[in-house]
Amino acid sequence: MPYHFLVPLLLVGCLSTLGTAKPSHFNQILNAVNLSDTRLLEGTWQYKQQRTSLECMLSLEPDRLLYNFRHQAGLPQAPGAKPYGGWEAPTCQLRGHFVGHYMSATSFMYASTGNETVKNNMDYLVRELSKCQQKMGTGFLAAFPVSFFDKLEHHIYVWAPYYTIHKIMAGLYDQYRIAGNTLALEMASWMAEYFYDRTVKVLASQGMKGWQEILGNEWGGMNEVLYNLYGATGDPRQLAFGNLFDHYSWSRPLAADMDDLSPHHANTHIPEMIGYQRGYEVNNNKTQQYMANNFIRFIAANHSWATGGSNTYEFWHTPANMGTQLALWTEESCTQYNILKVLRHAFLQTGEISYFDWYERGITNGIIGNLRWNHPGEMIYMLPMGGGGTHKGNNTYYGPSGYEHEKYKINWGTPYNSFWCCYGTLFESFSKLTDSIYFLSPDSDTLYINQYMGSSYQWPKQQVGVQWKVSNLTKSLSAVLSFNAPHPTWNKEFTLKIRVPHWVQPGSQGRVNNEPAVSLQPQQYYTLKRKWTAKDTVTIHLNPSVWVQPIRDDRPQWKKTFALMYAHVIIVGVTPPPHNTTKLEIAPEHVQEYIKIDAEPTQPLATVTFTLTPPKGNPITLMPFYQCMDQPYTVYWNQGPLMPPPELAEHAWGTDL
């Protein structure tokens, strides 16, 4: 018998001895709090953007989202229901992917807001999807036919069917994990069983070589969702199936300490890294943890923009050569969503504070501004880093020849006719903005506060509400922590650990009540262990400054190319043309001397602006990147000659996933 026929038999034989016990250990030294115990405070950009996203969510009709699923299952449509457009149109091979994101996002939004209409819609959607799955009768659930997988397994091109299946399974899992819907868990488990059986047959007929070729087609985070299911059910087939989603041409170089990210497709492989992290957490796979940590290290050193995101034209390119990767087609929003998940898992596994300097920068500059202010459902695919970028719709196309029809990726989308991949991930992002502010020690006696985002947390063990009120970032950044106690005599002993960012300047202080102030040190926790009372407060005062973030490029001609930062926020040039230039005749180490903050705004959501007055030329207006909606802007500056047009000099338009 050829070896490849033995693979599924050996796999099944091993599984029969494992039983169905749930994993006994999860390799996380800290715990995330329940999303339902958190809320954003009113009067912040984050709150406003979440409410704008909620408005769009409530406008989506579940029967229209179900249209393609019912069609595939042969079930009647709801009266008057019509399909949506864009990537959810009946002709798009990815149809159904957004429905998976919608299930995740609604579970998050209900937990974050308690909106009952959201709950009713998501419960209805899951019930109706279950009817589709039952009608088809095999465990398969999709908005496209099974023949897509027949083609995939015969190595005939089809657009990423496992990617879409991952979104549906992940949405069902989140409906179970966040909203407690056990039907959703049963549905996801049945899907896993169906695809596991298909894969066993592929291995029997084609061996691992054939399976590896199939993994060359984008498959999202299939390993992550299968490990998540294993963590919930203990079914060893789910663990074994998750282990099979390991693309050797990608993972082996990481295991060998090689930065081989170029020319790989970023959003194919970042979800794979999240899966590796979950493999370590639920199965103690230290090789997977090692590869994920190497990936983080390579992104940080060689491939990250000032936003904390990465990629150009959706792909990674030559390490530490990002100067010639400046373009309008940079930083796919999906990749920012996924890198934040990678950083969150890394923090939970290690407690390393520096991950949240990166995280806070990433969510502020690469997520919050990707939804158009006061325009529900208008989001972006790409976040342009090249000079003169804008989201408004008048960008010149600088992409590879033959892809001009994809100019939409650098403009605002529409509520009902886009539904790109980035719509799904941004929908999720705005639904769970508070999921990475608060963390707990395993005994729930220590609370970590990791972001300066106005919010509250209801702490079950300590029977108290924590309010974290954060000021606008102007000439300083202040925060006040107070307690909403159940009664005036409440008192408890516990520890607070408040993150102090890396960018703080001397004079930054923390204070409990009216006690003497304590100097705060950058990239450390301000740790307070004491018996707390209902009237206690903690006041934080941080001194920010303008600083520069050099571009990740080792070549001499790019050594003086940089982005301008104020605290954790990118500040971009928005003076209209012809002054919107990338040339700035100031050495990076002196640029802060030429920038002053304008009058402090008096309204909570007013835009903070700065003026840069160079030795030569006209003053330049600067503003926070995340508040820059429609204006042309400049992210990167160069002391030397004008930088080239915003186009990719090395057209490695990734042919290899």
Largest beta-sheet details: 7 strands, antiparallel
Strands, count: 19
> How far do the termini sit from each other?
33 Å
Provide the structure class: alpha+beta
Number of separate helices: 17
Roughly what percent helix?
25-40%
Strand order of the largest sheet: 2-5-6-7-12-9-10
Q: Which percent band covers the strand fraction? A: 5-15%
Q: Can you tell me the overall shape?
A: globular
Uncertain spans, ≥5 residues at pLDDT below 50? 1-20, 394-400, 645-657
Radius of gyration: 25 Å
Mean pLDDT: 91
Lay out the secondary structure.
Elements: H1 3-16, E1 31-32, E2 38-40, H2 45-59, H3 62-65, H4 67-73, H5 97-113, H6 116-136, H7 147-153, H8 161-177, H9 182-214, H10 222-233, H11 236-244, H12 248-255, H13 266-283, H14 286-303, H15 333-350, H16 354-366, H17 421-431, E3 438-440, E4 446-449, E5 455-459, E6 464-470, E7 477-484, E8 491-500, E9 509-512, E10 518-519, E11 524-533, E12 537-542, E13 546-550, E14 561-566, E15 569-573, E16 595-597, E17 610-612, E18 620-624, E19 636-638
Parallel strand pairs: 4-8
Antiparallel strand pairs: 1-3, 2-5, 3-4, 5-6, 6-7, 7-12, 8-11, 9-10, 9-12, 13-14, 14-15, 14-19, 15-18, 16-17, 17-18
